[in-house]
Amino acid sequence: MKGVLSNRIRTLRFNHGEMSQSDLGQRIGVTRQTIAAIEAGKYSPTLEAAFRIAAVFNVPLDEVFQWEGD
């Protein structure tokens, strides 16, 4: 099954005090480059990282990531 994983990380970071990619990365234990790649849709996060990102913003996982399948 093909599809696209999109996300709202940039918007969530902006809405939470304009949090930087570095700050988010430090909070979940990954590099700024990893956050940038996830935001750009060039890299899919691990399930653990996805849940950690949602926890930082205190939102459900489906408010951060959306799956658009064929």
Task: Count every beta strand, where a strand is a DSSP E run of 2 or more residues.
Answer: 2
Encode the helix/strand succession as letters: EHHHHHE
Q: Give the integer mean of the pLDDT values.
A: 95
CATH architecture heading: Orthogonal Bundle
Tally of DSSP helical segments: 5
What is the rounded Rg? 11 Å
The portion of residues assigned to helices is 40-55%
Low-confidence segments, given as residue ranges, are none
CATH superfamily: lambda repressor-like DNA-binding domains
| The CATH topology | 434 Repressor (Amino-terminal Domain)
What this model shows, in words?
- This protein has one domain: lambda repressor-like DNA-binding domains (434 Repressor (Amino-terminal Domain)), CATH 1.10.260.40.
- The protein has a two-stranded antiparallel ribbon.
- The chain has about 70 residues and is an alpha+beta fold.
- α2 crosses α3.
- It contains 5 helices and 2 strands.
What order do the helices and strands come in, and which of them pair?
Layout: E1 3-7, H1 9-15, H2 21-28, H3 32-39, H4 47-57, H5 61-64, E2 65-69
Antiparallel strand pairs: 1-2
Helix pairs in contact: 2-3
What features would you highlight for this structure?
70 residues, alpha+beta, 434 Repressor (Amino-terminal Domain), globular
Summarize, please.
The chain is an alpha+beta fold and 70 residues long. It has helices at residues 9-15, 21-28, 32-39, 47-57, 61-64; strands at residues 3-7, 65-69. It is globular and about 35 Å long.
